Amino acid sequence: SLVVFFVSCWGKMAKSKYEYVKHFEEHTPLLPNTWIVVRLDGRGFHKFSANHDYKKPNDERALSVMNDAAIACMMEIQDIVLGYGESDEMTLVMNRETTLFGRRKEKILSTVVSLFSSAFVMSWSKHMVDEKGNPEPLQMIPQFDGRIVCYPTLQNLHDYLSWRQVDCHINNMYNTTFWGLVQVKGLTPTEAEEKIRGTLSEGKHELMFSECGINYNVEPAMYRKGSVIVWENYEVEVEGFKPLPDGTQTKVLSKRTRRRIVVTHQDMIGKDFWEKYNDIFPAEMLDLEPSSGLNKKKRAKQIKEKATKKKTEET
How many C-beta atoms lie closer than 10 Å to residue 172's C-beta? Predict the structure, then answer.
């Protein structure tokens, strides 16, 4: 027919002698059955935060912009099961079964980075307001670089997230001490650095409390532990109608499970988090001791013993 002839001719014309250049493209498939972790870092954010007068040591407004950008990514790409944010860094974890873009590294990374950056700009005016509630203008283009790492086991993922959360704690404790000495005690930045140099955790606690009146333990958890953004199941009551033998109907209430994204500031190092979200993360296979210090055979034996113990308890 004429239509078939046209399609056939168009297909031949669509190919050209220049099409060979497609063979130079690289498509890197990510390892199957692994947790895909995309980590985004603000590029040049020291200058960016200074130009936008971020509050020190922490600016809740700026952290909320980061969290909203992560939520936008999770809503758009629902294979992202968790986000973890601290400072100008955001980690997004994709479930290990995802087939997004055929698990092509370039496509996933470029899509997530561009989506996060765009959502950051769109969320800016919602949170970055002055004391009168007026939006503060965006004066620079926010930039984020990204990397992808595949973690084969839940243990690896746990240890990665624990590493980032410990990093958050260490950095925040230093910054809170430093800016307390500068803002409350009146020291210069150089003097504050000298006073902190060589101190351990206890020493910083003492400096904050005795010289700045800051009890670090009651500082907002968002600053101390970062933001954990995760899908959560919840139940809602739905109204319906049940037919009666006489042909009439009666109202009935039934429960339905829904999903929503929640922003929390909880500990991810201990077991409670992993047990709470075991529909996403199979916590029964998790060894809470870092694997780097364990002999492989010993660790395998420990996991097997835990599994056997749990099975015995259930029976």
Answer: 22
Mean per-residue pLDDT pooled into runs of 10, the chain (315 residues): 53 75 91 97 96 96 98 97 97 96 97 98 95 92 97 94 97 96 96 95 95 95 97 88 84 88 96 91 66 52 56 52
Going by C-alpha positions, the residue among 222, 229, 286 that lies closest to residue 262 is: 229
Residue type, 5: F
Check residue 96 and report its DSSP letter.
Answer: T
Instruction: Please give the Cα distance from 155 to 287 (Å, whole number).
Output: 6
Of the CA atoms within 13 Å of residue 14, those in its CB half-sphere come to 6
Tokens standing for 117? Answer: 């950056």
Helix (H, G, I), strand (E, B) or coil at 98: coil
- Looking from the CA of 132 toward its CB, the CA atoms found within 13 Å total 3
Tell me phi and psi for residue 4, to 5 degrees. Answer: -60, -40
Tokens 């243990």, residue? Answer: 155
3-state secondary structure 26-60: CCCECCCCCEEEEEEEECCHHHHHHHCCCCCCCCH
For the chain, how many residues are written?
Answer: 315
